Amino acid sequence: MPQQPHGPLRSFGRIKARPIKSRQASLLKTLLPTIALDLSQPIDLLALKPDATEVWLEIGFGGGEHLATQAERRPDVLALGAEPFLNGVASALRHIEAAALTNVRLHAGDARDLLAALPKACLDRAFILFPDPWPKLRHHKRRLIQPDVVAELARVLKPFGRLRFATDWANYADWTLERLTGASALVWTAQRADDWRLAPNDHAPTRYEAKKLGDIAPVYLEFERAPEAG
Ligand SMILES: C[S@@+](CC[C@H](N)C(=O)[O-])C[C@H]1O[C@@H](n2cnc3c(N)ncnc32)[C@H](O)[C@@H]1O
Fold first, then answer.
1. Phi, psi of 117 (to 5 degrees)
2. Is the pLDDT of residue 155 over 80?
3. How far apart are the first and last CA of the chain?
4. Which residues line ligand 1 (CB under 6 A)?
5. What is the pTM of this model?
6. Residues 6 or more apart from 45 whose CB is under 8 A from it?
7. 172-199: per-residue pLDDT in tens?
8. In angstroms, rounded to a whole number, what is the distance separating the alpha carbons of residues 171 and 146?
């Protein structure tokens, strides 16, 4: 078995499902190579978009609706996305093409590899929206939110940079709060229940969210990267 740098456990399910429609298949060949991130060396974000005012990252963007909507709303932002599910990447390319977006860069693979290639304190915002819930106890170890990923998020977020995590699974919300607030570098910003019960004003609904497969109404947890002590 080939070694994986972040351990053998996959946090995602399928990497390919139904046949990819021909327009999307052609975008995988033409558009993706022009906007794919090169992880063979540390990423130079400034070179990707020299006039970017902020850098955002979406982990597990699924069909890419949220990523494309945010990138369209904020053309000044360099929007990075990681997703190993090829049908999702193909769908995202369609959104990127339709809106003629020039500020999106993708990694068609595991976000943990992208995180490892990012410099320290480079992200203004990160989004993990409705990650695979892995609801069975024996599968919890597959959840994306694990100590190594939490440590990487804390490393790549700028001081006061924000992470938005959404889920509609009660146990995954508790799991994440425990692991993120346990890492002193990330502070949960909620002041009142509506802060997690209501979708934030700038949220763009996702495809998975619309399916309502979880056991609770969605919760939206916002965390802020504490500045370095000392
Ligand atoms: C339940 S889906 C939600 C997709 C999308 N965020 C939405 O709300 O519609 C979770 C997604 O996370 C992706 N994913 C899981 N592990 C990942 C990883 N290590 N890196 C990047 N994406 C991952 C899966 O492939 C899947 O598309």
1. -90, -5
2. yes
3. 44
4. 11-12, 59-62, 82-85, 88, 110-112, 129-132, 144, 206-209
5. 0.95
6. 52, 55, 78, 118, 119, 122
7. 999 999 999 887 799 999 999 999 999 9
8. 14
Q: Whose CA is nearest to atom 9 of ligand 1?
A: 208
User: 37-61: per-residue pLDDT in tens?
Assistant: 999 988 999 999 999 999 999 999 9
Pairing of strands 186-188, 77-82: unpaired
Q: In Å, how far from its chain's centre is CA 86? A: 15
Is 124 known to be catalytic?
Answer: no
Tokens coding 157 = 């977020």
Q: Cβ(125)–Cβ(164) under 8 Å?
A: yes
Which string of DSSP letters, residue by residue, matches 115-156? HHHSPTT-EEEEEEES-----SGGGGGG-S--HHHHHHHHHH
Report the side by side order of strands in the sheet with 123-129. 104-107, 77-82, 54-59, 123-129, 157-167, 219-225, 186-188
Q: Tell me, what's the pLDDT at 7? A: 59
Q: For residue 59, which of 158, 125, 142 has the smallest C-alpha distance?
A: 125
157-167 and 219-225 as β-strands: parallel, antiparallel, unpaired?
A: antiparallel
- From 91, 203, 208, the mutation candidate for ligand 1 (largest count of ligand atoms within 8 A of CB) is 208
